[in-house]
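A reminder before we start the practical. When you read a complex entry, don't treat the lines as separate problems. The point of joint prediction is that each chain is placed relative to the others, so the output describes one connected object in space. Small molecules and nucleic acid strands, if listed, are placed in the same frame. In the example below there are two entries. Take a minute to note the order of the lines before looking further.
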Amino acid sequence: EVQLVESGGGLVQPGGSLRLSCAASGFTFSSYWMSWVRQAPGKGLEWVANIKQDGSEKYYVDSVKGRFTISRDNAKNSLYLQMNSLRAEDTAVYYCARELRLWHDYWGQGTLVTVSS
Amino acid sequence: EIVLTQSPATLSLSPGERATLSCRASQSVSSYLAWYQQKPGQAPRLLIYDASNRATGIPARFSGSGSGTDFTLTISSLEPEDFAVYYCQQRSNWRRFTFGPGTKVDIK
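Here is the predicted structure of the whole assembly.
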């Protein structure tokens, strides 16, 4: 059974940093592109970043470029999102999701990040 | 950047009724469109990919159609568990994804 379990969310002050993790199991993690998708409270879905199987390609939504870094450790079946210079508008539930071709076929349950003083 | 627009924003229907949701792209996405369902407090679930293919385990009452810029998700007869928010999504040539703003299907 495919499982994605996020962790690392919490309350952080504006300008602060946080590192999210996603533990993957039930599939060959190193064979898939992976994404982070977020959802602000009461709002829709926003794709944040993705990373190729070997980590050689990474893409970001414009609003997080230069502040967020996606990475992965295939030996640990883990995906990460390092978030720096956090802003109030980064407050959201962050989901890790597996990419299959042009879609996201499995999602984690999400971890809440709150940026507030 | 391709923008996805969904209509209506809210659809109020009764169980057993037919639901028709629309997604329009600002330029052609061929048939490369997906639909997701999200219930309160849950992660999204993939329903339809390539505009008309049901994902694994998705009931036959869900169907998708369309190509180019206009797409439709149809729920033939609403079950109580179908009341949720539905998002369409496409991926650009640059491996970036965009989602539509969502359509909420609620109980009339």
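Discuss with your neighbour: Chain A has a mean pLDDT of 97. What might explain this?
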